[in-house]
Amino acid sequence: MQTTRKRTVEEIKDLTLEQFRALETHYGEWRAVAVRSGPTDHERVEKAIGRLYTVCGYDWPTFVWYESPREMLTFLATGLGRFGRVPLRDSLCQPLRLEREEVELRKCFRPMLWGLSTVPFGGLLDQQPALIMDFLPEWIRRVMVQCLNEIAVGLELDWISYHDFCERRLGVQYEPRRLERIRLWSEICQTAYWWAPYEGTCFVSDRPTTIHLDRRERFHNLKGPAMAFSDGWSLYAIHGSSVSERLVMSPDTVKLEDLPLDTDLEVLHATIELLGHERFLKAANAKLMHEDSFGRLHRIQFYDMEPLLLVDVVNSTPEPNGTVKHHFLRVPPVIETAHEGVAWSFGQRRKDYGPAIQT
Amino acid sequence: MTKRSRQYRQGDVLLTGIDPPAKSGEPVGPINGRLVLASGELTGHSHTVPALDGKAQVFKGPGNLRYLLLTAVGQLQHQEHGAIELESGWYEVRVQREYDPTRTFPTYAND
After folding, report:
1. How far away is chain B from the Cα of A329, in angstroms, using its nearest Cα?
2. Residue A311 and residue A342 in contact, taking contact as beta carbons nearer than 8 Å
């Protein structure tokens, strides 16, 4: 797969099927880098960042390390932090930015073929800053918004992985000075976490100690933090939606405000699974609206949102251990009876729904 | 015979006996001798009917709808639910959906 003859970007008009397959593997590897957790090699990070500073014409900086982005942002938010400093991220990023021909070539990276990743990262890179922002105190969040373009938060992986593929897999000829800087960025992204480069000083955060994802690579953990840092800062999420610590760690004390009822069905069902249906109904202050042989219809009022109507249906086939499984079915707010709700779920009118056999 | 007298539910799938549809759509081929009516994305479990050497056929209908044609007695099967004997005839197959105001299209259950 390694190409020996170097080519220009203009020479490549399309990718072969073999290259598409290599692209999928390539992005899989970079996706793993984006969500890597564990110890941070300070020496290796400082060497790569310091070298990038010098090849870009800046002095080797002083490094200030933090155990989490929250700790780093808290420092930057105070007067002693970024006040009066010259931000360098924009300047250091220059070699990564795609030129016109590279943008054209990149369009070939999104094949309309089933079975291949059509979008390299999707929301994978954005979800980390989004989750971190959700867990920051309001005043630090405001600072983060103000100085987001001064901090490298991992979004650069999109460019780096592109150049890495072009250079190593497609044999694209890069100008040597640019290539050196791209490789340094690659090294930094594989070792460091968030870093804020300023003239003379570089603030760097350690990587998370823990990251848990679901099958679709969204932050998710029903038994503990979805992401945690060595200073003890823990962030909780269910299928990509941030949730309170109490919901995951102290389910017995959960209140209405802890329930993520303003998100989608996947998060709703995971929350019910986490709490158990009785505890969920109690925490949600659910009111029983109707009950018949088809199930129990509950109504939950979540602040000023559309009321949430759930039909509690019971599996006709018992579990191997003899228990019966409950399942909540969300139905439109106009539904008045459990029978009508279950009929709606099958696209039927109430008078047309009444199975002779149910298992 | 009323519509409800030939209506069977197995978990999140509902089969309703119907008259032959005006347009039944493309046939769905069997996999290892079984016709899949619906399958769970998460569990990998599925609601199936043995193909019975062509005596059972499944056709795609509009949207998420499927049609099942049995010219012999068949059986609806699933890994977690009891089997249901099905007499011959046409059936409309519907998969349970849920109300999700965050989405434009309905969300189908997948047990």
Report:
1. 6
2. yes
Question: Which ipTM did the prediction report?
Answer: 0.88
d(CA B95, CA B89): 19
In chain A, whose CA is at the least distance from the CA of B101? A264
- Whole-model pTM: value is 0.85
Angle at A224 between CA A221 and CA A229, to 5 degrees: 100
User: Chain A residues with CB inside 8 Å of B97's CB?
Assistant: 345-347
Q: Which residue of B has its CA nearest to A331?
A: B99
Q: Which of B84, B102, B103 sits opposite A357 (nearest CB)?
A: B84
| DSSP at B74 | E
pLDDT interval class at A64 (50, 70, 90)? very high
**Cα separation, A130 vs A148, whole angstroms:** 12
Looking at per-residue confidence, does A109 or A238 come out higher? Answer: A238
Separation in Å, CA of B91 to nearest CA in chain A: 13
> Given an 8 Å threshold on Cβ–Cβ distance, is B96 in contact with A330?
no
pLDDT digits (tens, 9 = 90+) for A183-225: 999 999 999 999 999 999 999 999 999 999 999 899 999 999 9
| Alpha-carbon span A155 to A167, nearest angstrom | 20
What would the 3-class secondary structure string for A79-125 be?
Answer: CCCCCCCCECHHHHHHHHCCCHHHHHHHHCCCCCCCCCCCCCCCCCC
